[in-house]
Design a protein that fits this description.
- With 246 residues, the protein is of the alpha/beta class.
- The protein has a single domain, classed as Rossmann fold (3-Layer(aba) Sandwich), CATH 3.40.50.
- 34% of the residues lie in helices and 25% in strands.
- The chain contains nine helices and ten strands.
- α3 packs parallel to α5.
- The longest helix has 16 residues.
- The termini are far apart.
- Belongs to the ABC transporter superfamily.
- It comes from anaerobic digester metagenome.
- This is Leucine/isoleucine/valine transporter subunit ATP-binding component of ABC superfamily.
Length: 246
Protein backbone atom coordinates (compact mmCIF):
# COMPACT_ATOMS: atom_id res chain seq x y z
CA UNK A 1 0.00 0.00 0.00
CA UNK A 2 2.68 2.49 1.07
CA UNK A 3 6.24 2.44 -0.18
CA UNK A 4 8.98 4.85 0.84
CA UNK A 5 12.20 4.88 -1.16
CA UNK A 6 15.31 6.74 0.00
CA UNK A 7 13.34 9.43 1.82
CA UNK A 8 15.27 12.46 3.04
CA UNK A 9 13.81 15.35 5.07
CA UNK A 10 15.69 18.36 6.39
CA UNK A 11 14.82 20.72 9.21
CA UNK A 12 16.98 23.68 8.35
CA UNK A 13 20.55 22.43 8.29
CA UNK A 14 19.65 19.24 10.16
CA UNK A 15 18.88 16.09 8.18
CA UNK A 16 16.03 14.49 10.11
CA UNK A 17 15.48 11.52 7.78
CA UNK A 18 18.38 9.86 5.99
CA UNK A 19 17.73 7.66 2.94
CA UNK A 20 14.86 5.93 4.72
CA UNK A 21 13.07 3.11 2.90
CA UNK A 22 10.19 0.90 4.00
CA UNK A 23 7.06 -0.86 2.75
CA UNK A 24 3.77 -1.02 4.64
CA UNK A 25 1.12 -3.48 3.47
CA UNK A 26 -2.62 -2.86 3.35
CA UNK A 27 -4.33 -3.74 6.62
CA UNK A 28 -1.04 -3.84 8.53
CA UNK A 29 -0.49 -2.11 11.87
CA UNK A 30 3.11 -1.00 12.30
CA UNK A 31 4.79 0.48 15.37
CA UNK A 32 7.62 2.98 14.97
CA UNK A 33 9.74 3.25 18.11
CA UNK A 34 12.90 5.06 19.03
CA UNK A 35 14.36 7.72 21.27
CA UNK A 36 13.36 11.39 21.13
CA UNK A 37 14.90 13.03 18.09
CA UNK A 38 15.12 9.80 16.11
CA UNK A 39 12.91 11.19 13.32
CA UNK A 40 9.66 9.38 14.10
CA UNK A 41 7.40 12.43 14.05
CA UNK A 42 9.19 13.77 10.99
CA UNK A 43 8.41 10.52 9.18
CA UNK A 44 4.70 10.88 9.93
CA UNK A 45 4.79 14.56 9.00
CA UNK A 46 6.35 13.76 5.63
CA UNK A 47 3.72 11.10 4.95
CA UNK A 48 0.96 13.56 5.89
CA UNK A 49 2.31 16.28 3.60
CA UNK A 50 3.52 18.59 6.38
CA UNK A 51 7.20 18.35 5.40
CA UNK A 52 8.48 18.45 1.85
CA UNK A 53 11.12 15.78 1.19
CA UNK A 54 14.59 16.84 0.14
CA UNK A 55 14.98 13.54 -1.67
CA UNK A 56 13.45 10.14 -2.23
CA UNK A 57 9.92 9.05 -3.13
CA UNK A 58 6.63 8.28 -1.39
CA UNK A 59 4.32 5.90 -3.26
CA UNK A 60 0.70 5.30 -2.23
CA UNK A 61 -0.95 2.38 -3.99
CA UNK A 62 1.75 2.58 -6.65
CA UNK A 63 1.31 6.31 -7.36
CA UNK A 64 3.77 8.98 -6.34
CA UNK A 65 2.52 11.46 -3.73
CA UNK A 66 5.98 12.86 -3.03
CA UNK A 67 5.92 16.49 -1.97
CA UNK A 68 2.14 16.84 -2.17
CA UNK A 69 0.51 19.20 0.38
CA UNK A 70 -1.45 18.05 3.42
CA UNK A 71 -4.90 18.71 1.94
CA UNK A 72 -4.02 16.50 -1.04
CA UNK A 73 -2.83 13.71 1.26
CA UNK A 74 -6.09 13.81 3.23
CA UNK A 75 -8.08 13.41 0.03
CA UNK A 76 -5.91 10.42 -0.88
CA UNK A 77 -6.88 8.72 2.39
CA UNK A 78 -3.99 9.65 4.72
CA UNK A 79 -5.01 11.06 8.11
CA UNK A 80 -2.61 12.21 10.84
CA UNK A 81 -3.51 12.30 14.53
CA UNK A 82 -0.81 14.68 15.77
CA UNK A 83 1.21 14.61 18.94
CA UNK A 84 -0.34 16.61 21.80
CA UNK A 85 -3.79 16.10 20.20
CA UNK A 86 -4.13 19.67 18.80
CA UNK A 87 -7.87 19.78 19.32
CA UNK A 88 -9.83 23.06 19.25
CA UNK A 89 -10.58 23.69 22.93
CA UNK A 90 -13.27 26.35 22.39
CA UNK A 91 -15.24 24.24 19.92
CA UNK A 92 -17.61 21.48 20.96
CA UNK A 93 -16.74 17.81 20.73
CA UNK A 94 -19.12 17.47 17.78
CA UNK A 95 -17.63 20.44 15.94
CA UNK A 96 -14.15 19.00 16.39
CA UNK A 97 -15.33 15.76 14.83
CA UNK A 98 -17.04 17.52 11.95
CA UNK A 99 -13.85 19.43 11.16
CA UNK A 100 -12.22 16.09 10.44
CA UNK A 101 -14.74 15.59 7.64
CA UNK A 102 -14.34 19.06 6.14
CA UNK A 103 -13.25 17.85 2.69
CA UNK A 104 -16.37 15.75 2.08
CA UNK A 105 -18.94 17.23 4.47
CA UNK A 106 -21.14 18.95 1.85
CA UNK A 107 -21.21 15.98 -0.50
CA UNK A 108 -21.74 13.31 2.15
CA UNK A 109 -23.74 14.88 4.98
CA UNK A 110 -25.74 11.74 5.75
CA UNK A 111 -22.62 9.60 5.69
CA UNK A 112 -20.86 12.08 8.01
CA UNK A 113 -23.62 11.63 10.59
CA UNK A 114 -23.07 7.87 10.43
CA UNK A 115 -19.33 8.41 10.83
CA UNK A 116 -19.98 10.40 14.02
CA UNK A 117 -22.06 7.49 15.35
CA UNK A 118 -19.22 5.07 14.58
CA UNK A 119 -16.71 7.23 16.44
CA UNK A 120 -19.00 7.30 19.48
CA UNK A 121 -19.36 3.53 19.28
CA UNK A 122 -15.57 3.17 19.19
CA UNK A 123 -15.16 5.62 22.08
CA UNK A 124 -18.38 5.39 24.14
CA UNK A 125 -16.87 7.66 26.82
CA UNK A 126 -17.48 10.56 24.40
CA UNK A 127 -21.19 9.80 24.11
CA UNK A 128 -23.25 12.49 25.84
CA UNK A 129 -20.40 14.99 25.64
CA UNK A 130 -21.02 16.08 22.04
CA UNK A 131 -22.11 19.60 23.02
CA UNK A 132 -19.38 20.13 25.61
CA UNK A 133 -16.41 22.36 24.80
CA UNK A 134 -13.51 20.08 23.95
CA UNK A 135 -11.27 21.94 26.38
CA UNK A 136 -13.34 20.67 29.32
CA UNK A 137 -12.52 17.04 28.57
CA UNK A 138 -9.89 15.03 30.42
CA UNK A 139 -6.63 14.25 28.65
CA UNK A 140 -7.81 10.74 27.84
CA UNK A 141 -11.08 11.92 26.33
CA UNK A 142 -9.24 14.58 24.34
CA UNK A 143 -7.01 11.88 22.87
CA UNK A 144 -10.04 9.81 21.93
CA UNK A 145 -11.53 12.91 20.33
CA UNK A 146 -8.32 13.53 18.36
CA UNK A 147 -8.36 9.98 17.04
CA UNK A 148 -12.07 10.27 16.26
CA UNK A 149 -11.46 13.49 14.34
CA UNK A 150 -8.79 11.70 12.30
CA UNK A 151 -11.23 8.89 11.53
CA UNK A 152 -13.84 11.37 10.29
CA UNK A 153 -11.64 11.91 7.22
CA UNK A 154 -12.40 8.29 6.26
CA UNK A 155 -8.72 7.33 5.97
CA UNK A 156 -7.31 4.17 4.50
CA UNK A 157 -4.01 4.99 6.25
CA UNK A 158 -4.14 6.33 9.81
CA UNK A 159 -1.00 7.89 11.28
CA UNK A 160 -0.83 8.31 15.06
CA UNK A 161 1.87 10.28 16.86
CA UNK A 162 2.30 9.34 20.54
CA UNK A 163 -1.39 8.68 21.35
CA UNK A 164 -0.59 7.41 24.86
CA UNK A 165 1.51 10.42 25.89
CA UNK A 166 0.67 11.60 29.41
CA UNK A 167 -2.26 9.23 29.88
CA UNK A 168 -3.09 6.87 32.73
CA UNK A 169 -2.44 3.15 32.09
CA UNK A 170 -6.16 2.31 32.03
CA UNK A 171 -6.81 4.94 29.35
CA UNK A 172 -3.82 3.70 27.35
CA UNK A 173 -5.30 0.19 27.36
CA UNK A 174 -8.65 1.56 26.13
CA UNK A 175 -7.01 3.44 23.28
CA UNK A 176 -4.83 0.51 22.24
CA UNK A 177 -7.90 -1.76 22.29
CA UNK A 178 -9.71 0.71 20.03
CA UNK A 179 -6.78 0.70 17.61
CA UNK A 180 -6.84 -3.10 17.56
CA UNK A 181 -10.55 -2.91 16.70
CA UNK A 182 -9.81 -0.48 13.86
CA UNK A 183 -7.22 -2.84 12.47
CA UNK A 184 -9.87 -5.54 12.27
CA UNK A 185 -11.80 -3.33 9.84
CA UNK A 186 -8.88 -3.49 7.40
CA UNK A 187 -7.49 -0.04 8.14
CA UNK A 188 -3.74 0.42 7.76
CA UNK A 189 -2.18 2.06 10.82
CA UNK A 190 1.26 3.50 11.55
CA UNK A 191 1.74 4.05 15.28
CA UNK A 192 4.59 6.18 16.62
CA UNK A 193 4.76 5.41 20.32
CA UNK A 194 7.09 5.88 23.28
CA UNK A 195 5.15 3.27 25.26
CA UNK A 196 6.93 0.46 23.50
CA UNK A 197 5.39 -2.36 25.52
CA UNK A 198 1.84 -1.21 24.73
CA UNK A 199 2.64 -0.68 21.05
CA UNK A 200 4.21 -4.09 20.56
CA UNK A 201 1.18 -5.83 22.05
CA UNK A 202 -1.23 -4.57 19.38
CA UNK A 203 0.90 -4.19 16.24
CA UNK A 204 1.95 -6.70 13.57
CA UNK A 205 5.41 -5.31 12.97
CA UNK A 206 7.79 -2.81 14.55
CA UNK A 207 10.51 -0.53 13.24
CA UNK A 208 13.25 0.98 15.39
CA UNK A 209 14.55 4.38 14.29
CA UNK A 210 17.82 6.03 15.25
CA UNK A 211 19.16 9.29 13.82
CA UNK A 212 16.74 9.37 10.92
CA UNK A 213 17.23 5.77 9.83
CA UNK A 214 15.53 2.43 10.42
CA UNK A 215 18.10 0.32 12.23
CA UNK A 216 15.97 -2.68 13.20
CA UNK A 217 12.67 -4.19 12.07
CA UNK A 218 10.71 -7.36 12.62
CA UNK A 219 7.48 -8.90 13.83
CA UNK A 220 6.28 -7.32 17.06
CA UNK A 221 6.31 -10.65 18.89
CA UNK A 222 9.96 -11.11 17.97
CA UNK A 223 10.87 -7.55 18.91
CA UNK A 224 9.49 -8.01 22.43
CA UNK A 225 12.13 -10.68 23.04
CA UNK A 226 14.94 -8.85 21.22
CA UNK A 227 17.70 -8.06 23.73
CA UNK A 228 18.49 -4.70 22.16
CA UNK A 229 14.84 -3.60 22.27
CA UNK A 230 14.41 -4.88 25.81
CA UNK A 231 17.41 -2.95 27.10
CA UNK A 232 16.81 0.30 25.20
CA UNK A 233 13.00 0.56 25.15
CA UNK A 234 11.46 -1.89 27.62
CA UNK A 235 13.62 -1.08 30.62
CA UNK A 236 14.93 -4.60 31.00
CA UNK A 237 18.60 -4.96 31.80
CA UNK A 238 20.48 -8.23 31.45
CA UNK A 239 21.67 -9.63 34.71
CA UNK A 240 25.43 -9.45 35.07
CA UNK A 241 27.33 -12.72 34.98
CA UNK A 242 28.52 -13.88 38.41
CA UNK A 243 32.20 -13.43 38.99
CA UNK A 244 34.31 -16.54 38.53
CA UNK A 245 35.30 -18.32 41.74
CA UNK A 246 39.05 -18.86 41.92
Amino acid sequence: MLEIIGLQVNHGWVRALRDLSLHIHKGEMVAVIGANGAGKSTLLGALAGLYKPAGGRILLNGRSVTGKPAEYMVRQGISLVPERREIFNSLTVLDNLLLGAYHHYRALKDAVREDVKRVLELFPALRGRERDPAGTLSGGLQQMLAIGRGLMARPSLLLLDEPSSGLAPLVVREIMAALADLKQTGMTIVLVEQNTAAALKVTDRALVMERGRIVLSGCSDEMISNARVQQAYLGRVRAARPAAVL
